[in-house]
Design a protein that fits this description.
By secondary structure, this protein is an alpha/beta fold. It is 32% helix and 23% strand. The chain has a nine-stranded mixed β-sheet with strand order 6-7-5-8-9-10-11-12-13. It has a six-stranded mixed β-sheet with strand order 14-15-19-16-17-18, with helices on both faces. Helix 12 links the parallel strand 16 and strand 17.
Length: 421
């Protein structure tokens, strides 16, 4: 077995060598890849690179970790993909199935890799898997028992060659399902509906709008299952302790998947109580003299930022920017015109943010997160919301979205102490 790494250093290199793994650092070698029986790529490695050409020409199979792990699992998989909301939905679904008494392991693109679950997997295990487009594009036999596609919008165009390539990667979540499996489709999203047509699995619709005659919807104060025979109440909306209507869509999807998997309404409701969401996803970060601060650092694309801004229809100051991944920042004009007070533009994308949003609200540029929080506070006073909804990746200023979100929270804490002083 060989590990090949483009960097010159890997922290675990000595342990790998001691375990008998040959370690090649400082670049991928064509001859090594071409001589392999199987190549397993990291989700961050594009398989279109020329370095893989010789291996591909030899017929060497090139797959990802998600595909490899799925071949060794004993339990069934419930997989979730989408442009926004995967982590929240996956986590909540795991809680619901655990509350229902099932043996559940949660992982994939969230928490532990799926390969770390292989040893603990039994025939009774339900693996609740968050699946990204990077992971799905290298699958060949990956077959979830229940597959959920939450939504679709332009994203990761810095990695995928086109919107259609990104969509095709997402759609692979259904590719190997059979008539014995289930596919949960967001009927409110035309892109998801169109790209799930013709699949083999049993299609089940969910819609926050309520615009389906047979499926899962929000009906007044309840999440319900609607069929020709009538309406079954599942979860009271009052049990949802998450901010933003788009979060209710995630709860709806999790409820639908848990219901198909056999969870009873009480278990699903119990799992919701006390669940305030994930860190860096519409996370309350404090209040200073009537101004609220919300950390949605996971809103790394335009669609996610739009939904975040829509959750605060009045007096919002949005912090937007970072490393641009593609999409149309002008899509933020409409929600901001409905009550935005200002935008604070940060990072490499600050000029793009200014060009896209000037004329709708004042655009303030900030050179640091500290300046962004302080200027946002000034613009939001006395009763507004400062919302970190970047619509961009974090890699210009930060290691990842979590480091960016933590920096935001630290600056809010520092500002609160400063104002008190």
């Amino acid at each position: 077995m060989t590990l090949t790494e483009s960097r010159d250093r890997v922290d675990a290199a000595d342990r790998l060598r001691a375990a008998g793994v040959h370690v090649e650092l400082g670049g991928h070698r064509r001859e090594t890849l071409a001589a392999a029986d199987l190549v397993v790529v990291s989700p961050g490695v594009p398989v279109e690179q020329p370095v893989f050409d010789a291996a591909r020409a030899r017929g060497v199979e090139i797959i990802g970790e998600l595909e490899l792990a799925s071949r060794w699992l004993r339990g069934r998989m419930v997989a979730v993909t989408g442009t926004k909301g995967k982590s929240t939905t996956t986590t909540l679904l795991g809680r619901m199935l655990t509350a229902a008494g099932r043996d559940v392991l949660v992982g994939g693109n969230i928490g532990v890799p799926l390969s770390a679950q292989v040893e603990a997997s039994t025939a009774e295990t339900l693996h609740v898997v968050e699946a990204s487009s990077f992971q799905l594009e290298t699958t060949t036999t990956f077959r979830p028992w229940i597959a959920v596609w939450l939504n679709f919008a332009d994203d990761h165009l810095d990695r995928h060659p086109s919107v259609e390539a990104y969509a095709a990667a997402k759609a692979r979540i259904f590719a190997n399902q059979t008539a014995e499996d289930w596919a949960l489709i967001n009927a409110d999203d035309p892109g998801v509906v169109a790209r799930s047509a013709g699949i083999s699995a049993r299609r089940v619709l969910f819609a926050l709008s309520g615009a389906v005659a047979d499926g899962f919807i929000v009906d007044g104060e309840w999440i319900v299952k609607r069929t020709a025979a009538g309406v079954q109440r599942l979860v009271p909306v009052a049990a949802v302790e998450l901010t933003g209507r788009h979060m209710l869509n995630n709860v709806l999807a999790a409820t639908a998947a848990a219901s198909i998997a056999g969870a009873l309404p009480q278990a699903m409701t119990d799992a919701l109580r006390g669940f305030h969401g994930l860190e860096h996803a519409m996370e309350p970060a404090g209040t200073i003299h009537g101004v609220r601060f919300i950390n949605d650092s996971k809103a790394t694309n335009v669609e996610a930022a739009r939904r975040s801004i829509e959750s605060f229809p009045g007096a919002v100051v949005a912090i937007v920017g970072g490393r641009f991944k593609g999409g149309d920042l002008r899509q933020l004009r409409e929600p901001l015109s409905a009550g935005g007070r200002a935008v604070v533009a940060i990072g490499e994308a600050a000029p793009l943010v200014r060009d896209a949003l000037s004329g709708v609200v004042p655009v303030i540029e900030a050179a640091t997160m500290r300046e962004a929080v302080e200027r946002g506070y000034e613009a939001a006073a006395p009763d507004g919301v400062v919302l970190l909804a970047p619509a961009c990746a974090s890699f210009d200023w930060f290691r990842d979205y979590a480091e960016r979100g933590n920096a935001f929270k630290e600056e809010v804490k520092r500002l609160k102490n400063k104002v008190r002083g």
